[in-house]
Design brief:
single chain, alpha/beta, Immunoglobulin-like, 16 helices, 28 strands
């Protein structure tokens, strides 16, 4: 094997950007890059290890001999070690052996590796990302699908446990098998997007992917990088967007990962109160270090560029924003202004969103943020963090709490279900029933519903329909769409066998119908983030535990009246006010439909308006509200009255011959008085 040849892909400008925290394409320079140099094919390697005294290259190409291929330090004190090794090729395994000034000897995977060995093995793999994409139609129109005024219904998926061939962990579907089965299923169910829990390489499966060691490498558990591209490509060809879960909030301390990378705190903050997360026993990035900011923002743009991701869901944003997050008094230090905000992290998030939207304005960034931090989904130029959307965690907690109550007690907790509208339009909210709500002993969604089996499934259908009609984008974790009965097991598979039973099949049919309704009715998505798209009709009927509201689109004719009955008692002749004087209301959706395993309490005929004032409105109509159900109505105006046409003339009018103007004489201008005949005069007098 040839020796290392001094070579660099970096320019002085690259180094200046890197050290100022503004190099957002580092993956084009760092890592392993197959190139041809002086007619020799090989690989250029570059790694940042500023506190190292020596960095050597290990690999199967040199029998893991740590002295055969030492890398060269750059002369500019950037901390970058680099070099070209002829003969190394795609598929070769490698690591960096790092010698520290403290005498430590560390073996590290490449932080910029494009591919990695299948865990528990930890070496990096030389790779290239060439792929022929076939999603041009999607990419040229995805700005319409990702717009805030478009329907946005997300199916959250953990790839390893969505479906398995057997009970063994190694039997998870591959990326290409998922392209066949998962894509077809998501399309059939009508979701507009999928959100994939972290696909970046991670050593520990029970972390669900949230403890990442290979930030630039899709996990090799399911195939190659090109196989993952094929999965994304297939989603796009079927009109489905792909959101990737992205984790800049923390990383594990595994020996081959980023932790203490060169014997120093290169990536993590050196202060344990800022650099160690007590909940997850993981390390926290040093957001104030420019090289780390360049690494993270480059990573975000990498997935958007090379994998055509349509959005990034940013994990655990709240833990980044606050210095005292999950820490007791005395375990954290205020910032230099005396506050609890992590100012470096806040600036990093602003820089991140500006870079993402500046380069890819047709994607979305979505914050998992559980506090009342202001302006999370507002532009940075008005002081916001710049995210496109934010998870509505308060709505999720209140909704699960309310529907978990026995219907008898819901009358005493009416404000729990109505409160969300008070703040629904302060952010661009996404409504999440995520994986976090069906683990750690919380139980599945249907298990959290009260009552007997029928009531549990009716409650679940009602709760899901409430999500689809409440303002905001939608997110549902896999299994919730068919009433998965057991709590989510990351080491197993969803219980697909349940679909042989009518209650589960009914929920699945209803969710598919809801997605179709959601996508076909502009009133349900055009006003998702605008207060003009929502109006209460009946908000105070706590005694009956009913709610009635209107969802509005840009066109007044698209408005929908949505009525919820949160008790198992049928509400006959329930009056609903309307400021319309003519026409009828037609039921277009009902969660109690027998097709959904409902009891069949439907409004099958058009309902006329009457002039009975109700709900502070001039007119009203009466409907039957199904037990533990939702009915959705749409107004139909009366037929337009035909306009009266002018009568047709049967004869053609005679032509008018122009006459010469009369000549005025003295007699004509001063006529003599007319004498009335005597008989005529007498008759007139009589």
């Amino acid at each position: 094997m040839s020796q290392v040849i001094a070579h660099s892909l970096f320019t002085d400008f690259d180094i200046a950007l890197f050290q100022s925290g503004k190099h957002f394409r580092l993956y084009e320079k760092m890592g392993a890059h197959p190139i041809t140099l002086n007619d020799q094919e090989g690989v250029y390697f570059a790694v940042w290890a500023p506190a190292a005294s020596q960095v050597n290259l290990l690999g199967d190409f040199n029998q893991w001999n740590d002295h055969q291929h030492p890398l060269f330090p750059r002369w500019d004190n950037s901390g970058i070690w680099e070099g070209f090794v002829p003969g190394v090729k795609k598929g070769d395994l490698y690591k960096y052996k790092i010698y520290t000034y403290k005498g430590q000897v560390l073996e590290k995977a490449d932080p910029y590796a494009l591919y990695a060995e299948k865990p528990p093995l930890t070496a990096s793999v030389v790779w290239e990302l060439g792929y022929t994409w076939n999603d041009q139609n999607w990419m040229t129109t995805r700005h319409k699908h990702n717009a805030l005024g478009a329907p946005y219904s997300v199916y959250e998926v953990h790839l390893a446990s969505w479906k398995r061939k057997t009970k063994e962990e190694s039997s998870s579907l591959s990326y290409r098998e998922l392209a066949d089965e998962l894509v077809a299923y998501v399309k059939e169910m009508g979701f507009t997007h999928v959100e994939l829990m972290p696909v970046m390489e991670h050593p520990y499966s029970p972390s669900w992917g949230y403890q990442i060691t290979g930030f630039f490498a899709p996990t090799s558990r399911f195939g190659t990088p090109q196989d993952f591209m094929y999965l994304v490509d297939t989603f796009h060809q079927n009109g489905i967007g792909v959101i990737l879960d992205w984790v800049p909030s923390h990383f594990p301390s595994d020996g081959h990962g980023l932790g203490h990378f060169d014997g120093s705190n290169a990536y993590e903050h050196p202060n344990p109160q800022l650099g160690y997360h007590p909940d997850w026993e993981s390390l926290i990035f040093n957001y104030g270090r420019n090289e780390v900011r360049s690494f993270l923002i480059s990573n975000a743009l990498f997935w958007l560029q090379y994998y055509h991701a349509d959005g990034l869901r940013i994990d655990a944003v709240a833990s980044m924003l606050y210095l005292d997050y999950s820490r007791k008094e005395g375990q954290w230090q205020p910032n230099h202004k005396g506050g609890r905000e992590n100012l470096d992290a806040i600036q990093f998030l602003k820089d991140l969103n500006e870079a993402v939207y500046g380069n890819y304005p047709d994607v979305q960034t979505i914050a998992e943020e559980s506090t009342a931090f202001p302006l999370v989904s507002r532009p940075t130029y008005i002081g916001g963090l710049g995210f496109g959307m934010k998870w509505m965690m308060g709505w999720m907690h209140d909704t699960l709490k309310y529907f978990g109550l026995d219907p008898f007690f819901r009358r005493f907790n009416h404000n729990t279900i109505t409160f969300s509208i008070m703040y629904a339009f302060t952010e661009n909210y996404m409504l999440p029933f995520s994986h976090d709500e069906v683990v750690h002993g919380k139980g599945s969604l249907v298990r959290r519903m009260p009552g007997d089996e029928w009531q549990r499934f009716a409650n679940l259908r009602l709760m899901l329909a409430y999500m689809f009609t409440h303002p905001g984008a939608k997110l549902l974790f896999m299994g919730g769409e068919f009433g998965q009965y057991n709590e989510w097991n990351f080491g197993g598979s969803l219980d697909w066998n349940l679909l042989q039973y009518d209650p589960h099949k009914g929920v699945q049919k209803m969710v598919a119908a809801l997605n179709q309704l959601y996508r076909s009715q502009p009133a349900l998505y055009e006003g998702n983030f605008d207060a003009t798209g929502f109006e209460w009709i009946e908000v105070g009927d706590y005694q009956n535990s009913t709610l009635v509201f209107v969802r509005k689109g840009h066109n007044a004719d698209d408005a929908l009246v949505i009525a919820l009955n949160c008790t198992p008692v049928v509400r006959h002749d329930y009056r609903i006010g309307a400021n319309l004087q003519e026409g009828t209301f037609t039921e277009i959706f009902n969660t109690d439909n027998p097709d959904f395993w409902g009891s069949g309490v439907l409004n099958t005929q058009p309902i006329p308006l009457t002039d009975t004032p109700w709900n502070y409105r001039t007119h009203s109509f009466t409907a039957t509200l199904p037990p533990l159900g939702m009915a959705i109505f749409k107004h139909t105006p009366p037929p337009a009255k035909p306009k009266r046409k002018p009568a047709k003339k049967t004869t053609k009018p005679a032509a008018i011959t122009p006459q010469p103007a009369p000549v005025l004489t003295a007699e004509a201008t001063n006529p003599a008085p007319v004498k009335t005949p005597k008989k005529t005069k007498q008759k007139a007098e009589n």
